[in-house]
């Protein structure tokens, strides 16, 4: 076979496979939205339970992301810059939640932070509980999604050449000052992208949350609850409304990134 | 004064081995040697941005071996300039300045006025080196460590800027250590000559 023909064939096969993948990604959500219909979705969006679950999801994911940013930036900096014994182990521990099935993480959280655990008993006198509480939702979102932030922030910081920090230090900054004035501003876009990726992942979390906090219901748990209680047709409008909300959030995030030059 | 005594440092695949020399106060030390000789590592170790494994560094009257870079009162200029790309040219120069007026003075003397509106990432290699020099001088350090800071300038500009920088350093009581491949700079009159190879000083007029 001649070279131009084989190249043409390769292009055609690549285009076909790529198109099929896009179709596989879009088809289920598209079918869901079409199946629910405009009136069904409008009804779901007027449903107070749906609105409450969406608000709870957004607020919980935001809280989890803020906590991950507060603790994750120092950790990402150390992983990006500081050589130390056992670093590979720490990196593996950070990545661990990405490879553990999320219901398993939920079980682990129940064991380690449930009512019978040391943490659970320590929180009880303050009227706090992890199980079936917004705190539990935030913790579950944090554990399953924070690795995305830490790994993304680590890469963003590593891309800033360490010699810029060295120069800043000869100009009078201590290490924290150099990081604050040079490294973080230069890594800002990457850190913001990592935070938005984590936030988006947290909003869609189901497996860990459903075990730790079935109540109050976040959006994913509410859709699941409607499905198992009333069946697919009754759950369709809720599920479709959640898909549209997710699309809107994704659109806002992408538009923000573009306007930021990222 | 720069006094380095049996200074050793390790980087992946390379070691600086027991380097010793003295550059008297207000003088210029010129370091030459092939690529990979350890010249940049030497400057970074003196500045404190690279840890040493043994030896001591004395700058002026004080031994600074245990001090972090920000307390050593050094100016470090790399061949690659390493300007802060998120800051304006003027903010780069002013980054470590401690005296009012010194930034404007250096911007004028180094003829950077015409460049101040240009975004830093769009500056040419020679322009970047000019800004990096101004930034280090504006700090008015006790010790100036220059790692081929004129290499990206054309020869006419290089001679003028080199003369200016060394005169400014001398006028402000700075002791300078200059790494160079330039034959003209390597034989600067009155300078302490150091030739390095494979992490050691092989000849020294100090």
Q: How much helical structure, as a percent, in the residues of chain A?
A: over 70%
> Which outline of chain A best applies?
globular
Cα-to-Cα separation, first versus last residue of chain B: 12 Å
Number of helices of chain A: 11
The tally of beta strands of chain B, per DSSP, is: 10
Overall residue-averaged pLDDT value of chain A: 93
> Could you say which overall geometry of chain B the principal axes of the C-alpha atoms support?
globular
Strand content of chain B: 25-35%
Percentage of residues assigned to helices of chain B: 25-40%
Let me know the largest β-sheet of chain A.
Answer: none
User: What value does the Rg of chain A take, in angstroms?
Assistant: 22 Å
- Contiguous low-pLDDT stretches of chain B (5 residues minimum) are none
Topology as H/E string of chain A?
HHHHHHHHHHH
Report mean pLDDT of chain B, rounded to a whole number.
93
Please give the count of helices of chain B: 6
Please give the order of strands in the largest beta sheet of chain B: 6-7-8-3-9-10
Instruction: Give the oligomeric state.
Output: heterodimer
Structural class of chain A: mainly alpha
- Most residues in contact: chain pair: A-B, 17 and 24 residues
Give the CA-CA distance, first to last residue of chain A: 43 Å
Report the β-strand fraction of chain A as a percent range.
under 5%
Walk me through the structure:
The complex is a heterodimer of chains A (262) and B (206). By secondary structure, chain A is an all-alpha fold. Chain A has helices at residues 3-46, 48-81, 87-99, 102-113, 118-123, 134-158, 162-170, 175-203, 207-212, 219-230, 232-259. In chain A, helix 3 crosses helix 6 (134-158), helix 4 packs across helix 6 and helix 8 packs antiparallel against helix 11 (232-259). Chain B is of the alpha/beta class and 206 residues long. Chain B is 28% helix and 28% strand. Chain B contains six helices and ten strands. Chain B has helices spanning 39-47, 89-94, 102-109, 125-138, 155-171, 183-186; strands spanning 2-11, 14-23, 28-32, 54-59, 62-63, 74-77, 143-147, 175-179, 192-197, 200-204. In chain B, the strands form two sheets. A six-stranded mixed beta sheet of chain B has the order 6-7-8-3-9-10, sandwiched between helices. The longest helix of chain B is centred in the last third of the chain and has 17 residues, at 155-171. The A-B interface holds A 161, 163-164, 166-175, 177, 182, 185-186 and B 44, 47-49, 68-70, 72, 74-76, 78, 80, 82, 84-86, 95-96, 98, 135-136, 139, 141.
């Amino acid at each position: 076979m001649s070279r131009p023909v084989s190249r043409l064939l390769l292009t055609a096969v690549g285009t076909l496979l790529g198109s099929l993948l896009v179709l596989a990604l879009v088809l289920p959500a598209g079918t869901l939205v079409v199946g629910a219909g405009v009136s069904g979705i409008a009804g779901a969006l007027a449903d107070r339970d749906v609105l409450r679950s969406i608000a709870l999801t957004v607020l919980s994911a935001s809280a989890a992301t803020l906590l991950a940013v507060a603790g994750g930036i120092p950790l990402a900096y150390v992983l990006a810059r500081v050589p130390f014994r056992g670093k590979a182990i720490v990196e593996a521990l950070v990545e661990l939640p990405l490879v553990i099935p999320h219901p398993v993480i939920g079980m682990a959280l129940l064991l380690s932070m449930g009512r019978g655990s040391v943490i659970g008993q320590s929180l009880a006198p303050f009227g706090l509980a992890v199980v079936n509480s917004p705190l539990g939702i935030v913790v579950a979102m944090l554990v399953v999604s924070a690795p995305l932030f830490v790994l993304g922030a680590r890469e963003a910081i590593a891309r800033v050449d360490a010699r810029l920090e060295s120069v800043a230090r000869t100009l009078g900054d201590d290490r924290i000052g150099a990081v604050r004035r040079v490294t973080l501003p230069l890594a800002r876009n990457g850190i913001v992208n990592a935070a938005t990726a984590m936030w988006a992942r947290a909003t869609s979390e189901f497996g860990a949350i459903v075990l730790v906090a079935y109540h109050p219901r976040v959006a994913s748990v509410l859709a699941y609850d409607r499905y198992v209680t009333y069946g697919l047709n009754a759950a369709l409008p809720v599920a479709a409304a959640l898909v549209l909300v997710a699309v809107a959030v994704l659109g806002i995030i992408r538009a923000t990134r573009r306007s930021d030059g990222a | 004064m720069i006094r380095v005594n049996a200074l050793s440092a390790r980087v992946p695949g390379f070691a600086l081995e027991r380097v010793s020399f003295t550059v008297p106060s207000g003088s210029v030390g010129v370091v030459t040697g092939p690529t990979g000789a350890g010249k940049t590592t030497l400057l970074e170790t003196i500045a404190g941005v690279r840890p040493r494994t043994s030896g001591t560094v004395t700058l002026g009257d004080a031994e600074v071996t245990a001090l972090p870079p920000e307390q050593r009162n050094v100016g470090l200029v790399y061949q690659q300039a390493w300007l802060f790309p998120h800051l304006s040219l003027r903010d780069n120069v002013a980054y470590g300045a401690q005296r009012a007026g010194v930034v404007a003075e250096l911007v004028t003397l180094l003829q950077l006025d015409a460049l101040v509106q240009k975004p830093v990432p769009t500056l040419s290699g020679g322009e970047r080196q000019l800004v990096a020099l101004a930034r280090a001088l504006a700090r008015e350090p006790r010790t100036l460590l220059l790692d081929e800071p004129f290499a990206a300038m054309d020869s006419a500009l290089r001679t003028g800027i080199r003369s200016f920088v060394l005169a400014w350093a001398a006028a402000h009581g700075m002791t300078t250590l200059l790494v160079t491949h330039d034959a003209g700079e390597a034989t600067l009159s009155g300078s302490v000559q150091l030739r390095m190879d494979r992490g050691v000083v092989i000849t020294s007029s100090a």
